[in-house]
Amino acid sequence: MTALHEVVIPGAPAALAQRLSALVPSLETPRTRLRALRLSDMGAWAEILCTDRSRWMDGPMSRDDAFVELAASAGGWLLRGIGFWAVEARDSGEVLGFAGVNMEPSDREPELGYFFREAAEGRGYATEACQAARGWAWAQGLPSLVSYIDPENLRSVAVAERLGARRDAEAEAAYAGTPDEGVAVYRHSRPEIAA
Description:
The protein has helices at residues 12-23, 42-49, 63-79, 125-139, 154-162, 169-173; strands at 27-28, 32-36, 84-89, 95-102, 111-116, 146-149, 166-167, 184-187. It is of the alpha+beta class and 195 residues long.
């Protein structure tokens, strides 16, 4: 059974939510569509955050904690003008995972983050969606962009490297003595200075 806080309230609240969601930019790639988060995405979100798939992201979480993360990720658009998108397959509309540009409380720079469902792994969707998200971020004039990755998360490391990001030892050293010590910081280069 779906919890009541995961259900759209009909009428004027639903209409307002729809209008606000329409303000979030949507992006398209040859195979994916990046669109605003919806309450109906909670199932796919929980499939990742409430299972061992989230072990590199302080998980697994309870479904309620995952809901708070979903709300915070959607709220980033209102508070900062950046946030997460649901990444869906253009041909089927299936939610493949999530990607976005965000800043969590311990972040020192905007982050290009991504996490995908197991069924979507190994097919290039994350790289494709993240290229679009990164291009959008640079077009908005962000001063920098990094991906914070647990070094043991080899799939995520591979995505960052396919995107051309490189580890930044100086940025990693800034986390010494903090709860985030040991995080790998992958720096994305602006297109005009990329090799």
